[in-house]
Every structure is written in C-alpha cells, then in structure tokens.
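dumping this here so i dont lose it
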C-alpha cells in the first residue's frame, strides 16, 4: 500500500474516533444534565409544598403568634365618654388638689386643701379659682352645682373609723341640704403603695379599705353614688401601683389626667343609665 493511502486511512480513522468521542461525551453530559435537572425539579416539587410553603407558612404564622405574645403588652387607649363638667364641684384633700392641678377636668370648681378632712371641712376655708378664699357653707350658698364629688379620708386614717364615718354622714347630709338638685358622688379613698402601707405609719391600705367599706354603705343609705378608682391604679397586691406614684400617696401628673378622664367617663355612664 502506498504511503499516501496509509496516511489518508489513518486520518479517516482519527476523524471517526474523534466524532465518536464527541458524541459519547455529549450523551454523557446530557444524561448528567438531565439527572441534575431532574434532581432539582424533584427537590423543588418536594420542598415547595412541605418546606418552602407549608412549613414556612406555618412557621411564619407560629412566629407571628409568638411575637405577639412575647411583645411587651400595650393596652389599647381607652375611648372615654365625655360630658360637660362646668357644673361640677370637687371637695377633697391633697389628692384632690392634684386632680385640680393636673386632672384636666375642664370647667369644674375645686374646694380642696392639703390638710382637709371631715373634721375641719366646715371650719377651714379653701381658695377656689374665680371665687377666692371661701368656706364650704358660703360656696354652696352662692353657687348651684349639678354634680358634687367628695373624696376625704387619708388625713383621717389615724382616727377611729366609726367616728370618721359619723362625720362623713354629716357632711353628705349637709351637702344634700345645700344642693338638693345635685347628684352627689362619694369617691373611695385612693390606696397608697404597698411600701407606704407597710412603713409602720398609721396610713395603711387596711385602714383605707375599712373606711372605704363604711363610706360605700353610707352612700347606699343616703342614695348617692359611689365611685372606686382603685380598679384603675392598683397593682396585684391591691395597693397603689408604685410605678404611678413618687411618694406612695400621690399620683404622677399623667395619672391624674387618667383619673380625671375616668371620673368624667363614669359620670357620663351614670347619666345615661339613669336617664338624667
């Protein structure tokens, strides 16, 4: 065989071998690619319903619930009822002074002083804005009110309860006589903090509760209204929440605002319920 023919045959064989190799390579690559795509597709089909969607949706839902439960509790702002208070009079001691200064009860008048009690209520004068310094007798003679609120008792905590209640009853009779058309609200004494109640002094929540029970009974007997704001400010020990007071006795300014709103709200509800 000629050398040139041998070369041609050899080249032809090499070409055929190359073509076969390329085809085998492509087939293997295609199979591998299909196997790879098939794996991905299978994984997606399995994971989308079980991991990517259901489990994540469930997890997301669980996380949302857990987040809501674990988040700091935030009470929704209460929508209070409202009513005019320019025909109202508040009678009380230092905590009523705080209500006057910070409670934002628009238009109301206040007859109150730091040391006011049922034992000096008829003798002591108080400075009433737009009126001047006046005694209770003269104030009630010269002004007509539709609503009168009374909260006294913390300055009386060291006295015999039965004696204090007698004076309280006399005060209510006096106000009813002077203002026969007024609706009278006797307000329970605000509790003191647990620390204040247990500091060894005479002002204790036990004494205040006993007094509150007595004035509640008087309110029923005299057919006047009784309001107990302690539900708003008590902690889980039935004491004034320490976060709402600086001295264990008086509220912070912002809490007096809440108290004022609560009084107006309660009064409005009573007005509605009784058709006044």
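and the seq i came up w/
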């Amino acid at each position: 065989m000629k050398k040139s023919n041998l070369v041609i045959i050899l080249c032809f064989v090499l070409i055929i071998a190359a073509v076969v190799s390329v085809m085998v390579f492509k087939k293997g690559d295609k199979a591998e690619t299909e196997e790879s795509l098939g794996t991905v597709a299978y994984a997606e089909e399995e994971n989308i319903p079980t991991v990517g969607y259901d489990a994540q949706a469930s997890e997301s839902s669980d996380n949302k619930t857990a987040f809501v439960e674990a988040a700091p509790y935030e009470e929704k702002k209460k929508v209070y009822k409202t009513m005019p208070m320019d025909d109202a009079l508040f009678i009380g001691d230092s905590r009523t002074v705080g209500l006057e200064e910070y409670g934002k009860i628009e238009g109301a008048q206040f007859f109150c002083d730091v040391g006011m009690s049922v034992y000096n209520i008829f003798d002591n004068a108080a400075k009433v804005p737009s009126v001047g310094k006046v005694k209770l007798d003269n104030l009630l003679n010269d002004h007509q009110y539709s609503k009168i609120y009374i909260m006294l008792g913390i300055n009386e905590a060291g006295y015999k309860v039965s004696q204090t209640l007698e004076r309280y009853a006399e005060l209510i009779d006096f106000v009813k006589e002077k203002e026969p058309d007024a609706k009278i609200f006797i307000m329970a004494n605000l509790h003191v903090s647990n620390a204040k109640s247990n500091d060894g002094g005479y002002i204790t929540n036990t004494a205040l509760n006993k007094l509150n029970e007595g004035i509640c009974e008087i309110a029923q007997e005299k057919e006047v209204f009784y309001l107990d704001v302690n539900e708003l400010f008590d902690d889980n020990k039935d004491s004034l929440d320490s976060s709402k007071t600086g001295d264990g006795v008086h509220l912070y300014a912002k809490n007096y605002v809440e108290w004022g709103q609560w009084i107006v709200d309660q009064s409005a509800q009573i007005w509605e319920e009784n058709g006044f």
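Residues 24-75 have pLDDT under 50 and may be disordered.
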